[in-house]
Amino acid sequence: SQLAEENPWALSVHEGESVTVNCSYKTSITALQWYRQKSGEGPAQLILIRSNEREKRNGRLRATLDTSSQSSSLSITATRCEDTAVYFCATDASSGSWQLIFGSGTQLTVMP
Amino acid sequence: EAAVTQSPRSKVAVTGGKVTLSCHQTNNHDYMYWYRQDTGHGLRLIHYSYVADSTEKGDIPDGYKASRPSQENFSLILELASLSQTAVYFCASSPDTSAETLYFGSGTRLTVL
């Protein structure tokens, strides 16, 4: 089973709508990161939220973190066609391991 | 802005052949990583390095070797390419450990026939 998992697997919205992607993880963490990967490109970080933070914003993006339920969410408001991408959450596996573990991603399609 | 460049962008290799994927970063970062991405899946760590002339195994190192001759350069080597190694490979760098941002290259699409 995966240590980090996004849901839903895929979703579609129309431009201007808001959307939320959820992430659940299975280890204690020091930080959780959200990445976006557009077709043909490498992933690019959107937000890094540390374990002592509950919410973080970056423009139209808002990430939340609930360490008690080991879950996070990424919300995008006023979506644009260029937001179409795969969105990943990634966590550091603690207990002495520094590795960044990625989920399988959520494919977001924003339609005109 | 951080810059990680990979070469080649795509490659077709024959089964049993040797493949070398190259990565160069101009970020002055200590950490470099090689990830593999299969269609519809997330990224899995193959090898990483935190200092020149030293490499470490990630989650899926079997069938791969890595080389870090300098801080800027990190290579992934497939000595005997196999069909199962067809995937997109991403190189990344970071200034520190996992709790920091990874800067990814654009990827190398490898097809093994």
Architecture overview:
The complex is a heterodimer of chains A (112) and B (113). Chain A is mainly β. In chain A, strands 2, 4, 5, 9, 10 and 11 form a 6-stranded mixed sheet that branches. In chain A, 0% of the residues lie in helices and 56% in strands. The model of chain A has no long low-confidence stretch (mean pLDDT 91). By secondary structure, chain B is mainly β. Helices cover 0% and strands 52% of the residues of chain B. In chain B, the strands form 2 sheets. In chain B, strands 2, 4, 5, 6, 9, 10 and 11 form a 7-stranded mixed sheet that branches. In chain B, strands 1-3-8-7 form a 4-stranded antiparallel sheet, with no helix packed on it. In chain B, β9 and β10 (103-104) form a beta hairpin. Chain B is globular. The mean pLDDT of chain B is 93. Classes of the chains: A mainly beta (112), B mainly beta (113).
Strand and helix order of chain B: EEEEEEEEEEE
Number of strands of chain B: 11
N-to-C span of chain A = 36 Å
Distance between the termini of chain B: 37 Å
SS class of chain A: mainly beta
Question: Approximately how much beta-strand content do the residues of chain A carry?
Answer: over 45%
Helix % of chain A is under 10%
Largest sheet of chain A: 6 strands, mixed
The mean pLDDT of chain A is 91
How many individual β-strands of chain A?
11
**Beta-strand content estimate of chain B:** over 45%
Rounded radius of gyration of chain A (Å): 13 Å
Q: Would you list the SSEs of chain A in sequence order as H and E?
A: EEEEEEEEEEE
